[in-house]
C-alpha cells in the first residue's frame, strides 16, 4: 500500500489518466449495473422504472447454447491455422494471414448481409440451405467464421509454447507417432480452453449478427434483447441492466478461466523454450492448408464482398438509383470525423499509459499496471452495455453530454482503448529504457526526447494502431445506435436502417463506397504520416537510425 501511495504521488500524469478512465468507464458502468438495486441512480425518474420482471429465458438459453457451439467449433480450424502459421513453411502463409485480417476487419453485420444476398437466390432460399441459414446453424456458422481471427492468435501462442525441446523429448521417449500426437494435443488443452472461452464471450457479445440474422430468424439473443429494452417504448433500463449482468459475469468468468488456463499452460511447458522448428509442408498438409485458406477467404471476405457488389449493381433501376443519397454521404462524413478523432484519442492515451512503465525511477509502473488491468476489464463489456451506461451516467445535470458528438467520441475511444493497448504493448516493451535515461542524463528535455528518440522508433507502429482502431470505429454499430446525436446518424446506423427497410441495393452501394473511402484514408495515413512527421531529410533519417542503433547496442549489453 505504501508503494502504491508513493507511486501515485510521484506520477501525477498517470493518476490523471486513471481518473479519465474511471470517469469514462468505471463510473458509467457501475451506475448502470447497480440500477436494479438502486433505481434512484437513474438521472430521470422514468429511466429507473422497470416495465417487466425477471430475465428472458429464451434469450439466455439461445445465447449460452449458440456461443458454446461456436466456441467448440472454432477450436479445430483455429488450432490448424496456428499450426500452419507457426510450425510449417509454405507459399500460402501470407495469404492465410491476410484472410484472417480481412475477417477481423469485416463488420459482422456486413458479413451477414453478404451471405443473406447469396442465400436469397431462389433455388437456395426455397431449399434446405435457406432453412439452415435462417436458423441456429447459420448463426453459429457466421459466429465461427468471425471468431477465427481471434482464435488463431491464441493458437499460435499455444503452438509456440510447445517448443522444440518438447518435440525432441517426445521423439526420443515416445516412439509411436499417434502417441506423440496425443501428447501434443494434451499439451494444447489449456490453449484450446482459452480459445473456447474467448470465442464464447465474443459470440455472446456480437451485436451485428444478433441484430441482423438473429432478428430475422426470430431467435432472440441477450445482446439484442438489451438493445430492444433501450430502444422500444416504454424504455426499460432496469431490465437491460439485469440482462447486462449476465454478459458481464460470463465475460469475467471467461477471462478468469483464460488466465488460469494460461498459467497452467506455462507450468506444463515451463522453462526456457527454443523456437519450434519450421519445416516445409508435405503434399497432404499443403492441400489441407490451401483448402483451409481458400475456405476462410471465401467465407469471410470474398463471397460477402462479391454479393454486395452484385446486389449494388443488380438492384439499380434507371436514372439516379445508382447514386448514394445525401443521408448516406452525411453518414460517411460523420463516421470519418468521429472515427478519426476517437482513434487519435485512443492511441494517444494507450501510448501515455504504456509510457508510464518507462519512467527512470520506476514510479509509474504500479499505476500503469493498474491502468492496463482496468482497460483489459473493459474488453468484458459489450458496446451495447457501455452505450446504455453512458445514457444513464451523462444524461443528468452533471456531465450532461447525452445527445452530443462529444459523448459518442468519448465512448468510441473508451471502448477501443484496449485494442490500441494490446497492439502497442509489444513495441513499447521492446523499447529500451536506457535510451531515455541516457538522453536525460545529458540534459535533453522530455519534449526533445519524445521528438528525437521515441517518435522515430514508434511512429510507424502508432500509425498502424491508429489505422486498426479507425477501421473498426468507422463501421461501429452498437454504440452508434444508442448514442448518436439526433439527425446525425453515423454510417453503421444508416446501413442497419437500410437493412431493416429492405433497401438492400442502396445498403450494398453505400457499404462498398464506404469501404473504399475507409481503406483509402487508412492507407494514406499509414504511408504518409511517418514520412511527413519524421521528414525525409538526411538529419532526421540519420537521427532515427542512430537512435535505433543505440537501442540495439543497449539491448545487447544488458
Description:
- The chain is mainly α.
- It folds into 2 domains: 54-266 and 280-315, MetI-like fold; 319-535, MetI-like fold.
- Helix content is 77%, strand content 1%.
- It contains 26 helices and 2 strands.
- It has helices spanning 2-10, 12-33, 57-73, 75-87, 93-105, 108-119, 122-125, 128-133, 136-161, 164-173, 177-187, 189-204, 207-216, 222-231, 237-268, 283-314, 326-355, 365-378, 383-393, 405-430, 433-441, 446-474, 478-483, 491-500, 504-534, 538-557, and strands at residues 88-89, 279-280.
- A two-stranded parallel sheet has the order 1-2.
- α12 packs antiparallel against α15 (237-268), α21 packs antiparallel against α22 and α24 (491-500) packs antiparallel against α25 (504-534).
- The model is unreliable at 1-10, 267-272 and 536-558 (pLDDT under 50).
Question: What attributes does this structure have?
Answer:
558 residues; mainly alpha; MetI-like fold; two-stranded parallel ribbon; 26 helices; disordered C terminus; transmembrane; cell inner membrane; MetI-like_sf
Order of helices and strands: HHHHEHHHHHHHHHHHEHHHHHHHHHHH
Strand order of the largest sheet: 1-2
Q: If helices are DSSP runs of H or I spanning 4 or more residues, what is the number of helices?
A: 26
The name CATH uses for the topology of the largest domain is: MetI-like fold
Strand content: under 5%
Give the radius of gyration. Answer: 25 Å
Number of domains: 2
Q: How far is the first residue's CA from the last residue's CA?
A: 31 Å
Main sheet: strands, sense, barrel: 2 strands, parallel
Question: Mind telling me which CATH architecture of the largest domain this is?
Answer: Orthogonal Bundle
Share of residues in helices: over 70%
CATH homologous superfamily designation of the largest domain: MetI-like
| Model regions low in confidence, pLDDT < 50 over at least 5 residues | 1-10, 267-272, 536-558
Q: What would the average pLDDT be, to the nearest integer?
A: 77
Can you identify the CATH class of the largest domain? Answer: Mainly Alpha
